[in-house]
Specification:
Layout lengths: L3 H6 L20 H16 L8 E4 L6 H15 L6 E7 L8 H15 E3 L3 H10 L2 H5 L7 H5 L4 H13 L6 E7 L12 H14 L4 E7 L1 H10 L1 H6 L1 E4 L5 H14 L5 E2 L1 H11 L3 H15 L4 E2 L1 H26 L2 H13 L15 H10 L3 E3 L5 E3 L2 H8 L2
Helix pairs in contact: 8-9, 12-13, 13-15, 14-15, 15-18, 16-17, 16-18
Bound molecules: adenosine-5'-diphosphate and magnesium ion.
Length: about 400
Protein backbone atom coordinates (compact mmCIF):
# COMPACT_ATOMS: atom_id res chain seq x y z
CA UNK A 1 0.00 0.00 0.00
CA UNK A 2 1.45 3.40 -0.90
CA UNK A 3 2.48 5.58 2.00
CA UNK A 4 0.83 8.96 1.53
CA UNK A 5 3.08 10.68 3.96
CA UNK A 6 6.20 9.66 2.16
CA UNK A 7 4.79 10.73 -1.16
CA UNK A 8 3.99 14.11 0.31
CA UNK A 9 7.44 14.48 1.82
CA UNK A 10 9.12 13.66 -1.45
CA UNK A 11 7.86 17.01 -2.64
CA UNK A 12 9.51 18.94 0.16
CA UNK A 13 12.60 20.92 -0.67
CA UNK A 14 14.76 21.22 2.47
CA UNK A 15 17.62 23.09 0.77
CA UNK A 16 17.82 26.79 1.44
CA UNK A 17 21.09 28.51 0.58
CA UNK A 18 20.21 31.85 2.19
CA UNK A 19 20.03 30.48 5.71
CA UNK A 20 22.95 29.19 7.72
CA UNK A 21 22.55 25.47 8.42
CA UNK A 22 20.45 24.69 11.48
CA UNK A 23 22.34 22.25 13.73
CA UNK A 24 20.04 19.43 12.57
CA UNK A 25 21.29 20.01 9.02
CA UNK A 26 24.92 20.37 9.93
CA UNK A 27 27.44 18.19 8.10
CA UNK A 28 31.22 17.72 8.08
CA UNK A 29 33.70 19.72 10.23
CA UNK A 30 34.23 16.64 12.42
CA UNK A 31 37.76 17.49 13.53
CA UNK A 32 36.78 21.03 14.45
CA UNK A 33 33.78 19.81 16.43
CA UNK A 34 35.84 17.25 18.31
CA UNK A 35 38.40 19.87 19.19
CA UNK A 36 35.73 22.29 20.33
CA UNK A 37 33.91 19.68 22.46
CA UNK A 38 37.11 18.69 24.19
CA UNK A 39 38.06 22.30 24.81
CA UNK A 40 34.60 23.22 26.11
CA UNK A 41 34.58 20.41 28.68
CA UNK A 42 38.14 21.12 29.70
CA UNK A 43 37.71 24.88 30.03
CA UNK A 44 34.37 24.43 31.79
CA UNK A 45 35.84 22.18 34.46
CA UNK A 46 39.08 23.95 35.19
CA UNK A 47 38.80 25.83 38.43
CA UNK A 48 41.12 28.59 37.32
CA UNK A 49 39.64 30.16 34.18
CA UNK A 50 41.62 29.00 31.14
CA UNK A 51 39.26 29.49 28.19
CA UNK A 52 40.26 29.09 24.55
CA UNK A 53 39.12 31.72 22.05
CA UNK A 54 38.25 30.66 18.51
CA UNK A 55 38.28 32.48 15.18
CA UNK A 56 36.21 30.71 12.54
CA UNK A 57 37.59 31.85 9.21
CA UNK A 58 36.45 31.44 5.62
CA UNK A 59 35.05 33.30 2.65
CA UNK A 60 31.35 34.15 2.17
CA UNK A 61 29.03 31.18 2.13
CA UNK A 62 31.65 28.78 3.42
CA UNK A 63 29.72 27.94 6.54
CA UNK A 64 31.03 30.24 9.28
CA UNK A 65 27.67 31.06 10.84
CA UNK A 66 26.60 27.44 10.53
CA UNK A 67 29.59 26.43 12.64
CA UNK A 68 28.64 28.98 15.31
CA UNK A 69 25.08 27.62 15.44
CA UNK A 70 26.47 24.11 15.74
CA UNK A 71 28.91 25.05 18.50
CA UNK A 72 26.05 26.61 20.40
CA UNK A 73 23.97 23.46 20.11
CA UNK A 74 26.91 21.29 21.13
CA UNK A 75 27.50 23.09 24.42
CA UNK A 76 23.87 23.78 25.23
CA UNK A 77 22.44 20.37 24.36
CA UNK A 78 25.06 17.68 23.71
CA UNK A 79 27.32 18.56 26.60
CA UNK A 80 24.73 19.49 29.18
CA UNK A 81 25.61 16.45 31.29
CA UNK A 82 29.26 17.43 31.18
CA UNK A 83 29.23 21.17 31.77
CA UNK A 84 26.87 23.96 32.68
CA UNK A 85 27.31 26.79 30.26
CA UNK A 86 25.81 29.87 28.70
CA UNK A 87 26.01 31.09 25.09
CA UNK A 88 25.45 34.64 23.96
CA UNK A 89 25.23 34.80 20.17
CA UNK A 90 25.40 38.26 18.62
CA UNK A 91 25.26 38.94 14.88
CA UNK A 92 27.30 42.06 14.21
CA UNK A 93 26.20 44.59 11.61
CA UNK A 94 27.87 47.69 10.12
CA UNK A 95 25.59 49.81 12.34
CA UNK A 96 26.45 48.10 15.59
CA UNK A 97 30.15 48.28 14.71
CA UNK A 98 30.32 52.02 14.00
CA UNK A 99 32.20 52.52 17.21
CA UNK A 100 32.95 50.67 20.42
CA UNK A 101 30.27 52.45 22.49
CA UNK A 102 27.56 51.59 20.03
CA UNK A 103 28.68 47.97 19.98
CA UNK A 104 28.75 47.78 23.78
CA UNK A 105 25.31 49.24 24.06
CA UNK A 106 23.73 47.06 21.34
CA UNK A 107 25.41 43.95 22.61
CA UNK A 108 24.40 44.43 26.24
CA UNK A 109 20.87 45.39 25.41
CA UNK A 110 20.40 42.26 23.36
CA UNK A 111 21.79 39.87 25.94
CA UNK A 112 18.36 38.86 27.31
CA UNK A 113 17.17 37.74 23.89
CA UNK A 114 20.50 36.31 22.70
CA UNK A 115 21.30 34.24 25.75
CA UNK A 116 20.80 30.48 25.83
CA UNK A 117 22.02 28.06 28.43
CA UNK A 118 22.17 24.42 29.34
CA UNK A 119 19.98 23.40 32.24
CA UNK A 120 17.35 25.61 33.71
CA UNK A 121 19.26 28.80 34.34
CA UNK A 122 18.15 30.81 31.32
CA UNK A 123 14.86 31.88 32.84
CA UNK A 124 16.50 32.84 36.09
CA UNK A 125 19.26 34.83 34.42
CA UNK A 126 16.82 36.61 32.17
CA UNK A 127 14.67 37.57 35.12
CA UNK A 128 17.74 38.84 36.92
CA UNK A 129 18.89 40.77 33.89
CA UNK A 130 15.62 42.64 33.88
CA UNK A 131 16.69 44.15 37.15
CA UNK A 132 20.24 44.54 36.05
CA UNK A 133 21.61 47.93 36.74
CA UNK A 134 23.55 48.17 33.48
CA UNK A 135 20.37 48.23 31.47
CA UNK A 136 19.35 51.38 33.31
CA UNK A 137 22.38 53.16 32.01
CA UNK A 138 21.20 52.56 28.49
CA UNK A 139 17.71 53.87 29.05
CA UNK A 140 16.22 57.02 27.56
CA UNK A 141 17.27 60.45 28.79
CA UNK A 142 15.23 61.34 31.82
CA UNK A 143 15.48 61.67 35.54
CA UNK A 144 18.57 59.48 35.55
CA UNK A 145 20.62 61.92 33.51
CA UNK A 146 23.76 61.27 35.53
CA UNK A 147 23.54 57.57 34.96
CA UNK A 148 22.87 57.99 31.29
CA UNK A 149 26.09 59.92 30.90
CA UNK A 150 28.10 57.18 32.52
CA UNK A 151 28.42 54.72 29.68
CA UNK A 152 28.85 51.12 30.76
CA UNK A 153 32.13 49.50 29.97
CA UNK A 154 31.81 46.10 28.38
CA UNK A 155 34.45 44.77 30.72
CA UNK A 156 32.61 45.86 33.87
CA UNK A 157 29.22 44.81 32.58
CA UNK A 158 30.42 41.32 31.74
CA UNK A 159 32.15 41.04 35.07
CA UNK A 160 28.90 41.94 36.84
CA UNK A 161 27.06 39.40 34.72
CA UNK A 162 29.56 36.71 35.70
CA UNK A 163 29.88 37.52 39.39
CA UNK A 164 26.26 38.28 40.12
CA UNK A 165 24.42 35.93 37.82
CA UNK A 166 26.40 33.34 35.93
CA UNK A 167 28.73 32.01 38.60
CA UNK A 168 26.09 31.92 41.38
CA UNK A 169 23.78 29.93 39.10
CA UNK A 170 26.47 27.31 38.60
CA UNK A 171 27.62 28.34 35.15
CA UNK A 172 31.09 26.98 34.49
CA UNK A 173 31.82 28.76 31.23
CA UNK A 174 30.16 31.41 29.05
CA UNK A 175 30.69 31.54 25.29
CA UNK A 176 30.36 34.90 23.61
CA UNK A 177 29.84 34.43 19.88
CA UNK A 178 30.35 37.42 17.60
CA UNK A 179 29.35 36.70 14.02
CA UNK A 180 31.03 38.73 11.22
CA UNK A 181 33.71 40.56 13.16
CA UNK A 182 34.96 42.29 10.00
CA UNK A 183 32.17 44.86 10.36
CA UNK A 184 34.45 46.66 12.81
CA UNK A 185 36.39 49.19 10.75
CA UNK A 186 40.02 48.24 10.60
CA UNK A 187 41.63 51.63 10.16
CA UNK A 188 40.43 53.85 12.96
CA UNK A 189 42.40 55.67 15.53
CA UNK A 190 41.18 53.47 18.30
CA UNK A 191 41.05 49.92 17.14
CA UNK A 192 38.00 48.01 18.33
CA UNK A 193 39.99 44.86 17.72
CA UNK A 194 42.52 45.70 20.37
CA UNK A 195 39.82 46.74 22.82
CA UNK A 196 38.10 43.42 22.28
CA UNK A 197 41.23 41.51 23.05
CA UNK A 198 42.05 43.62 26.10
CA UNK A 199 38.50 43.21 27.42
CA UNK A 200 38.42 39.43 27.17
CA UNK A 201 41.94 39.02 28.44
CA UNK A 202 41.13 41.14 31.48
CA UNK A 203 37.89 39.26 32.13
CA UNK A 204 39.85 36.05 32.55
CA UNK A 205 42.30 37.90 34.75
CA UNK A 206 39.30 38.84 36.91
CA UNK A 207 38.36 35.15 37.15
CA UNK A 208 35.40 35.37 34.80
CA UNK A 209 35.37 32.34 32.52
CA UNK A 210 34.41 33.79 29.14
CA UNK A 211 35.45 32.21 25.87
CA UNK A 212 35.21 34.45 22.81
CA UNK A 213 34.31 32.90 19.47
CA UNK A 214 34.23 35.04 16.36
CA UNK A 215 33.74 34.56 12.62
CA UNK A 216 35.50 36.60 9.95
CA UNK A 217 36.78 36.37 6.39
CA UNK A 218 40.16 34.63 6.33
CA UNK A 219 41.77 37.77 5.03
CA UNK A 220 40.87 39.84 8.07
CA UNK A 221 43.45 38.18 10.22
CA UNK A 222 46.23 38.85 7.79
CA UNK A 223 45.26 42.51 7.66
CA UNK A 224 44.72 42.75 11.39
CA UNK A 225 48.31 41.65 11.96
CA UNK A 226 49.35 45.10 10.76
CA UNK A 227 47.16 47.14 13.12
CA UNK A 228 46.44 44.85 16.03
CA UNK A 229 49.03 42.11 15.97
CA UNK A 230 48.29 40.61 19.43
CA UNK A 231 44.74 39.82 18.35
CA UNK A 232 45.93 37.12 15.95
CA UNK A 233 47.63 35.26 18.76
CA UNK A 234 44.57 35.62 20.97
CA UNK A 235 42.55 33.18 18.87
CA UNK A 236 42.80 29.58 17.86
CA UNK A 237 41.96 29.72 14.15
CA UNK A 238 39.56 27.33 12.44
CA UNK A 239 40.02 27.57 8.69
CA UNK A 240 36.98 26.18 6.93
CA UNK A 241 37.59 24.00 3.88
CA UNK A 242 35.33 23.35 0.94
CA UNK A 243 33.26 20.16 1.14
CA UNK A 244 34.86 16.98 -0.17
CA UNK A 245 32.68 14.22 -1.61
CA UNK A 246 31.73 12.54 1.68
CA UNK A 247 30.90 15.91 3.28
CA UNK A 248 28.73 17.02 0.38
CA UNK A 249 26.95 13.66 0.39
CA UNK A 250 26.31 13.96 4.10
CA UNK A 251 25.07 17.56 3.73
CA UNK A 252 22.62 16.50 1.02
CA UNK A 253 21.39 13.33 2.70
CA UNK A 254 21.00 14.81 6.16
CA UNK A 255 18.55 17.39 4.78
CA UNK A 256 16.50 14.90 2.81
CA UNK A 257 16.40 12.57 5.81
CA UNK A 258 15.31 15.35 8.14
CA UNK A 259 12.12 15.86 6.14
CA UNK A 260 11.62 12.09 5.75
CA UNK A 261 12.01 12.39 2.01
CA UNK A 262 12.51 9.23 -0.05
CA UNK A 263 14.29 11.07 -2.81
CA UNK A 264 17.69 9.55 -3.53
CA UNK A 265 20.51 11.59 -5.01
CA UNK A 266 23.03 9.37 -6.78
CA UNK A 267 26.72 9.56 -5.95
CA UNK A 268 27.45 10.48 -9.56
CA UNK A 269 25.15 13.48 -9.24
CA UNK A 270 26.88 14.63 -6.08
CA UNK A 271 30.26 14.20 -7.77
CA UNK A 272 29.05 16.23 -10.75
CA UNK A 273 27.73 19.03 -8.53
CA UNK A 274 30.98 19.00 -6.60
CA UNK A 275 32.92 19.37 -9.81
CA UNK A 276 30.90 22.46 -10.77
CA UNK A 277 30.79 24.10 -7.36
CA UNK A 278 34.19 23.05 -6.05
CA UNK A 279 32.43 21.93 -2.86
CA UNK A 280 31.47 25.48 -1.89
CA UNK A 281 28.69 24.95 0.72
CA UNK A 282 26.53 27.86 -0.40
CA UNK A 283 26.79 26.95 -4.09
CA UNK A 284 26.04 23.31 -3.28
CA UNK A 285 22.87 24.29 -1.39
CA UNK A 286 21.85 26.67 -4.16
CA UNK A 287 22.31 23.97 -6.79
CA UNK A 288 20.37 21.35 -4.82
CA UNK A 289 17.55 23.77 -4.10
CA UNK A 290 17.11 24.72 -7.74
CA UNK A 291 17.63 21.20 -9.03
CA UNK A 292 14.87 19.77 -6.85
CA UNK A 293 12.57 22.61 -7.85
CA UNK A 294 13.23 21.95 -11.52
CA UNK A 295 12.79 18.21 -11.26
CA UNK A 296 9.52 18.36 -9.32
CA UNK A 297 8.31 15.05 -8.02
CA UNK A 298 11.02 12.44 -8.56
CA UNK A 299 12.19 9.43 -6.62
CA UNK A 300 15.80 9.66 -7.65
CA UNK A 301 18.10 12.33 -8.97
CA UNK A 302 20.48 11.03 -11.58
CA UNK A 303 23.50 12.68 -13.14
CA UNK A 304 21.79 12.94 -16.54
CA UNK A 305 18.99 15.11 -15.22
CA UNK A 306 21.50 17.25 -13.35
CA UNK A 307 23.53 17.77 -16.54
CA UNK A 308 20.35 18.66 -18.40
CA UNK A 309 19.32 21.27 -15.84
CA UNK A 310 22.74 22.68 -15.06
CA UNK A 311 22.66 25.45 -17.70
CA UNK A 312 19.47 26.80 -16.12
CA UNK A 313 20.90 26.57 -12.63
CA UNK A 314 24.05 28.36 -13.75
CA UNK A 315 21.99 31.12 -15.35
CA UNK A 316 20.02 31.58 -12.13
CA UNK A 317 23.22 31.69 -10.13
CA UNK A 318 24.43 34.45 -12.40
CA UNK A 319 21.24 36.47 -12.08
CA UNK A 320 20.63 35.99 -8.37
CA UNK A 321 24.12 35.91 -6.89
CA UNK A 322 26.92 36.90 -9.20
CA UNK A 323 25.15 39.89 -10.77
CA UNK A 324 24.69 41.39 -7.32
CA UNK A 325 28.35 40.97 -6.48
CA UNK A 326 29.42 42.29 -9.87
CA UNK A 327 27.20 45.38 -9.66
CA UNK A 328 28.66 46.14 -6.25
CA UNK A 329 32.08 46.79 -7.85
CA UNK A 330 32.91 50.17 -9.46
CA UNK A 331 32.90 50.47 -13.28
CA UNK A 332 36.72 50.29 -13.44
CA UNK A 333 36.80 47.31 -11.09
CA UNK A 334 34.22 45.60 -13.26
CA UNK A 335 36.33 46.11 -16.37
CA UNK A 336 39.36 44.77 -14.58
CA UNK A 337 37.46 41.70 -13.34
CA UNK A 338 36.38 40.87 -16.88
CA UNK A 339 39.94 41.23 -18.14
CA UNK A 340 41.23 38.96 -15.38
CA UNK A 341 38.59 36.35 -16.20
CA UNK A 342 39.45 36.49 -19.90
CA UNK A 343 43.08 35.65 -19.14
CA UNK A 344 41.91 32.16 -18.19
CA UNK A 345 44.94 31.62 -15.99
CA UNK A 346 44.74 30.35 -12.45
CA UNK A 347 46.80 33.12 -10.90
CA UNK A 348 47.45 36.65 -12.13
CA UNK A 349 49.45 39.56 -10.73
CA UNK A 350 48.54 43.27 -10.87
CA UNK A 351 51.69 43.91 -12.92
CA UNK A 352 50.09 42.19 -15.91
CA UNK A 353 47.30 44.80 -15.95
CA UNK A 354 49.29 48.01 -16.28
CA UNK A 355 46.64 49.41 -18.63
CA UNK A 356 44.61 49.98 -15.45
CA UNK A 357 45.80 52.96 -13.42
CA UNK A 358 46.55 51.97 -9.81
CA UNK A 359 46.08 48.27 -10.57
CA UNK A 360 47.51 47.15 -7.21
CA UNK A 361 45.00 49.26 -5.34
CA UNK A 362 42.14 47.97 -7.49
CA UNK A 363 43.23 44.39 -6.84
CA UNK A 364 43.31 45.07 -3.09
CA UNK A 365 39.81 46.54 -3.19
CA UNK A 366 38.44 43.59 -5.12
CA UNK A 367 40.03 41.35 -2.55
CA UNK A 368 38.27 43.29 0.22
CA UNK A 369 35.01 42.71 -1.59
CA UNK A 370 35.82 38.99 -1.66
CA UNK A 371 35.71 38.94 -5.44
CA UNK A 372 39.40 38.11 -5.76
CA UNK A 373 41.41 35.79 -3.56
CA UNK A 374 45.02 36.57 -2.82
CA UNK A 375 47.47 33.74 -2.66
CA UNK A 376 51.18 33.74 -1.98
CA UNK A 377 53.53 36.26 -3.53
CA UNK A 378 50.96 38.85 -4.48
CA UNK A 379 49.10 36.68 -7.01
CA UNK A 380 45.34 36.66 -7.28
CA UNK A 381 42.53 34.49 -8.63
CA UNK A 382 38.81 35.05 -9.19
CA UNK A 383 37.02 33.88 -6.03
CA UNK A 384 35.24 31.03 -7.80
CA UNK A 385 35.56 29.47 -11.29
CA UNK A 386 31.79 29.83 -11.82
CA UNK A 387 32.10 33.57 -11.23
CA UNK A 388 34.95 33.67 -13.78
CA UNK A 389 32.62 32.01 -16.29
CA UNK A 390 29.94 34.57 -15.49
CA UNK A 391 32.41 37.41 -16.04
CA UNK A 392 33.46 36.09 -19.42
CA UNK A 393 29.86 36.41 -20.57
CA UNK A 394 29.56 40.04 -19.55
N1 LIG B 1 28.56 22.35 7.85
C1 LIG B 1 27.49 22.56 7.06
N2 LIG B 1 26.56 21.59 6.89
C2 LIG B 1 25.52 21.79 6.08
N3 LIG B 1 25.30 22.91 5.39
C3 LIG B 1 26.18 23.92 5.50
C4 LIG B 1 27.33 23.79 6.34
N4 LIG B 1 28.05 24.91 6.25
C5 LIG B 1 27.39 25.71 5.42
N5 LIG B 1 26.27 25.13 4.95
C6 LIG B 1 25.30 25.75 4.04
O1 LIG B 1 26.01 26.68 3.22
C7 LIG B 1 25.35 27.94 3.17
C8 LIG B 1 26.25 29.05 3.71
O2 LIG B 1 26.49 28.86 5.10
P1 LIG B 1 26.71 30.06 6.14
O3 LIG B 1 26.96 29.43 7.46
O4 LIG B 1 25.60 31.04 6.04
O5 LIG B 1 28.06 30.70 5.57
P2 LIG B 1 28.85 32.03 6.00
O6 LIG B 1 28.40 32.40 7.37
O7 LIG B 1 30.31 31.62 5.94
O8 LIG B 1 28.54 33.05 4.95
C9 LIG B 1 24.05 27.77 3.94
O9 LIG B 1 23.02 27.47 3.03
C10 LIG B 1 24.29 26.57 4.83
O10 LIG B 1 23.10 25.88 5.04
MG1 LIG C 1 27.52 34.23 8.04
Amino acid sequence: MPNDNHDKNDNLNPFSPQQPAQPEYFADRKIELRDFRRMAINSGRLKIPTPVNYAILGSWGQGKTSVLYKFRQVVIEDLQKEIKCVCIYFALSPESCQNWERFTSDFLQDIPSNLTSSGKITKKIKAELGKWEISLNLGPVGATRKREERKPRLLDALQVLWNKHLEPSGTQIAFIMLDDLHYFPLHKEESAYLTLRTTFQELVNRKCNYSLIITAPTLLFTDIAEVAEPLGRFFRPIDLNMFAFEDAKEAVEIRLKSVASNVRVSDETIRAILEKTGGHPYLLMFTMHELLNMLGQVKSVEVESFAQNWPRIEALLGRQIFAQKFQHASPTERKLLIEIAKKDSKLVSPGAFSQFKGASRLFARLEDEELLIRSDRGKYSIFHPLFAEYLKNQ
